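Researcher: Here's the sequence for the chain we discussed earlier.
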Amino acid sequence: MPDATMTKLTGAVREVAHLLTGAAEDYKPLLDLIGDARFVLIGEATHGTHEFYEQRAEITKRLIQEKGFTAVAVEADWPDAYRVNRFVRGINDDATATEALASLQGFPAWMWRNTDVLNFVTWLRQYNDVLPPNGTKVGFYGLDLYSLNASIRAVLDYLEKVDPEAAKCARSRYSCFEYFGEDTQAYGYATSFGLSESCEQDAVHQLLELQRRAAEYANQDGRVAEDEFFYAEQNARLVKNAEAYFRSMFCERVSSWNLRDRHMVETLNHLVSYLERQGKPTKVIVWEHNSHLGDARATDMRDIGQLNVGQLLRERYGRDVVIVGFSTYTGTVTAASDWDGPGEEKQVHPALSGSYEAIFHSTGLSRFLLNLRQNNQVITSLREPRLERGIGVIYRPETERHSHYFYARLPDQFDAVIHIDETRAVEPLERTTAEIEETEEPPETFPSAL
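Model: Thanks. This is the structure I predict for it:
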């Protein structure tokens, strides 16, 4: 882009941007944009930036307090996040948020076990604790599908309590996975290349059997029994979808990505239906990476056949969905160099010339909100495809252009974007490699790193 054109564009962006100063009213324009929307998707340009987590939590608090949102759904596994859900609603034995987050130990541990998430979960428990007796407590839920083995155990544990004979049948069905132990990647490899029969039908039959007994199980002990059945049913659904995901993982990356994002939307839809069984509309905040929440149709993803959560939700719910992205120009980030590697504090290179991040940096504003639904020449100009950066759990500065940039049309991808020019790494709860426990499940975000 010629210097004169760039200067004109950055000046125009500066004119329409809403400066964020740390004041209580900073996000009023965003809340006005959200209006009565039922789904607010709040992204992040990395999986390890303090400001993204911090500001996302602050926006979420406002939505809960001022607009009646009652669920937070995140890019984490269902059983691990459900332990946090029980804690924030005051229905388990965890005494602190630190204990409630203990199940989220696997790579990348810093993604959910960091001080910003700890602070938010603590706040959410305190918020729920002081609600009136008839108040709706805010829940915390996971949408992802990596926890195949943990979900199998959860289904079996549930059935052991409510129907020991059904538990025997479920154990027999799930025994199909036992040959591979905890190595779900080995299962995916063997079934993908015809080295072993798949467990697909066993997983499907177990979900159908659980659903067939739904009324019997869910009515055993009122509301508590309903919640426990829903938790078990979702774990059985996760096993079915995770089995398909691991089979696809070694064949076609596009297919595995699409299976994963479809699962997250399916989980969200079932969650909303369950929470609305009392007749009240449910409003949900979703926390995931920009690559999952920014509409895939406005990025390179569309060209290779990928879809994502943001696209699917917009297609179903239209203007009831508001998508907010984050960006940064430079700073530090917590990320690994390789799969299962330790989290490191890495320096983020200044954004490439001509990228959205570079344009925002050139405004001279340290942090601002840009409403991308505005109907003006600035937003029209920003609709031209430009480079955008995404850093997942792995950051490799030496291959940055190839591994961390893609083309996007920002106003079609998001409804608003928050730019924080210089950011710093999240602070993990585990400070050393030795403290990070190995996981028996595949790493979160495998194999895409997002």
